[in-house]
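[recover] target loaded
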């Protein structure tokens, strides 16, 4: 059991670190609009170039994409609805992650409670992921195929520029 305990705690810490990293706002369109909140995942988000908050990008480049006022209004509505739905879930997830961290500070850690909190956090992550996919699919439905292609090209070029800046700023 003494060999198993460090393994379990280490695994829990690694899991928590990984899940925290995955749930950290990278480029999403959630509660912190303009600050980005769509985490990496499947669906149009990946198709549209990975970590880009494509609804915000589409709205920012509405003239280039030739978006109609109706399209703009629909995309803004989707973004706002997504933010309203995800804000409380994100807050709950943050609180759960703090609770897990607190539980792991105890010696010995109560693994039953840690497991329960991790399961609760995963349910929230699942709901957040679904809401993101739903928003992306809803947004996609308001763009023509040509606009989707233009947006994909725009996001792709932005990602290439970002990757280029990253590689230039990293020491060789």
């Amino acid at each position: 059991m003494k060999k198993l305990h460090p393994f379990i705690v280490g695994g829990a810490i690694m899991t928590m670190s990984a899940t925290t990293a995955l749930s950290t706002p990278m480029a999403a369109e959630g509660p912190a609009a303009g600050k980005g909140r769509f985490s990496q995942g499947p669906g149009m988000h990946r198709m549209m170039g990975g970590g880009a908050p494509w609804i915000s990008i589409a709205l920012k480049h509405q003239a280039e994409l030739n978006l109609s006022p109706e399209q703009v209004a629909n995309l803004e509505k989707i973004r706002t609805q997504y933010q309203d739905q995800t804000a409380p879930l994100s807050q709950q997830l943050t609180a759960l992650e703090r609770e897990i961290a607190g539980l792991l500070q105890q010696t010995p850690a109560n693994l039953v409670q840690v497991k329960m909190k991790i399961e609760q956090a995963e349910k929230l992550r699942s709901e957040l992921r679904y809401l993101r996919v739903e928003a992306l699919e809803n947004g996609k439905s308001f763009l023509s195929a040509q606009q989707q292609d233009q947006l994909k090209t725009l996001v792709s070029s932005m990602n290439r520029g970002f990757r280029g800046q990253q590689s230039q700023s990293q020491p060789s």
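[recover] notes: Residues 14-52 have pLDDT under 50 and may be disordered.
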